[in-house]
Design goal:
43% of the residues lie in helices and 23% in strands. β4, α5 and β5 form a beta-alpha-beta unit. The strands form three sheets. Strands 6-7-16-15-12-13 form a six-stranded antiparallel sheet. The chain has a five-stranded parallel sheet with strand order 2-1-3-4-5, sandwiched between helices. A five-stranded antiparallel sheet has the order 8-9-10-11-14, with helices on one face. It starts with a helix and ends with a strand. α3 runs parallel beside α4 and α7 crosses α8. The relative contact order is 0.08. With 421 residues, the protein is of the alpha+beta class. The protein has two domains: 136 residues, Response regulator (Rossmann fold, 3-Layer(aba) Sandwich); 224 residues, PPM-type phosphatase domain (Phosphatase 2c, domain 1, 4-Layer Sandwich). It is built from eleven helices and 16 strands. About 4% of the residues have low confidence. The radius of gyration is 43 Å and the shape is rod-shaped.
């Protein structure tokens, strides 16, 4: 077999081996040089160092092998017939879908201009002929380090891109879930609003008005105004612990429980006792509600009320411009089996105003140092001449100025009962 046939047979044997997926530690090196002695020398030396080495006698054969075996490093002679090193380098760098091959150019011409030409054409390193084998091996080791760093960088970039794509997919899915959740919350808010009684009730000389401000779409405050017959009117205000969905669910259940309680009782203490028993399941879940229950005789002005751990309402008396808290005993709904609720009585005369609210207004604070509740008695006195709508508008405006750039952190509801002159 002549030399050319032997060379081709050897290359085909190597290609058969290298055609399988690359699972290796050794770098693959392609020697492109028309001098047989140099090829043999480098193949022998670099193979002994553990590299996978392929020889090519000219530039065209070298490019063909590049497409088939994807070498990591190419040792490329400049001066070759048919296609010189610059031509090989130009075509190599123009190949698509071929990983970067580290190119060490060999040339008998060591002028600076020749070196610059090779580097500008895309070579990574340059070594003049004749060369010391030790120096070339050192250059190959340096090339190996560069290639490994580049492979690590490419791997990190690929992993980063995969992570970014996964994150983008997750964000898109989360955005869809958020939109769906917002739609469901808006639906829940409409449902919750529909469960509240009308915000205003006029009974004889009494104007009763509420204003509800949830901190989110849905909240845990609840109010109910309704006539009971026989000149009596029920005034009910409650606050479920926390805010958001869980508090809103408690408020929704309270609506049903209150319907049952009012059908059985008209005394506030008894109404609260029935509600307390209905919410005993809350005790083990860390949930509870505070409540104010009042029954107003709209003919005589007598208000009977009881509290279940609720922030005390304020009573403004027109006769002496006095403001006092309506204290009462009683535990929060759902905490203890017996709530200890006691009926209290007050008389609402002409010009008097009862102001009940949830702790979202009394505990509103811009700095954790001052609370809006401390201002309420004075505000009630200063705005006593205002009708209910104007009175609540004034409180809203003053609260906004008080909080400044801060926002309320809890739902709040205002309820005012005003006996007209």
């Amino acid at each position: 077999m002549h030399n050319g046939a032997m060379y081709q047979a050897g290359i085909q044997a190597i290609l058969c081996i290298h055609s399988f997926p690359r699972k290796r530690e050794a770098m693959r090196i392609l020697i492109v040089d028309d001098e047989r002695s140099i090829r043999d020398l480098l193949v022998e030396k670099l193979s002994s160092l553990g590299y996978e080495v392929l020889p090519a006698p000219d530039g065209l054969e070298g490019l063909r092998l590049v497409e088939q075996v994807r070498p990591d490093i190419m040792i490329l002679d400049v001066n070759m017939p048919v296609l010189d090193g610059y031509g090989v380098l130009s075509r190599l760098r123009a190949m698509e879908n071929v990983p970067h091959t580290y190119v060490i150019m060999l040339t008998a011409r060591a002028e600076l201009a020749e070196v610059e030409r090779g580097l500008e054409a895309g070579a990574d390193d340059y070594l003049p002929k004749p060369f010391e084998l030790r120096e070339l091996v050192a250059r190959v080791h340096a090339a190996e380090r560069v290639q490994k760093l580049q492979e690590e960088l490419l791997l990190k970039n690929r992993q980063l891109n995969e992570a970014i794509q996964a994150l983008q997919t997750s964000l898109r899915q989360q955005a869809l879930l958020n939109r769906k959740m917002m739609q469901e919350l808006e639906m829940a808010a409409r449902l919750q609003t529909s469960m509240l009684s009308p915000a205003r009730m006029d009974q004889g000389p009494f104007q009763i008005l509420t204003r509800y401000r949830p901190v989110a779409n849905i909240g845990g405050d609840f109010y109910d105004l309704r006539p009971l017959g026989g000149n009596l009117a029920s005034i009910f205000l409650a606050d479920a612990v926390g805010h958001g969905v869980s508090a809103a669910l408690l408020a929704a259940m309270l609506k049903i429980a209150l319907e049952d309680a009012l059908s059985a009782e008209t005394r506030p203490s008894k109404i609260l006792s029935l509600l307390n028993h209905a919410f005993q399941f809350c005790a083990d879940r860390g949930k509870y509600l505070t409540a104010f229950s009042g029954v107003l005789n709209c003919e005589t002005g007598l208000l009977v009320y009881a509290l279940a751990g609720h922030v005390p309402p304020l009573l403004y008396k027109r006769s002496n411009r006095d403001v006092k808290k309506l204290e009462s005993t009683g535990f929060c709904l759902g905490v203890f089996g017996e709530g200890g609720y006691v009926d209290q009585e007050i008389q609402l005369s002409s010009g008097d105003r009862l102001f009940a609210f949830t702790d979202g207004i009394s505990e509103a604070s811009p700095d954790d140092l001052s609370v809006f509740g401390a201002m309420l008695p004075a505000l009630l006195r200063e705005n006593a001449q205002l009708e209910n709508e104007e009175f609540l508008n004034s409180l809203d405006a003053i609260l906004g100025k008080f909080l400044g750039n801060a926002s309320p952190t809890d739902d709040y509801t205002l309820l005012t009962v005003h006996r007209l002159n």
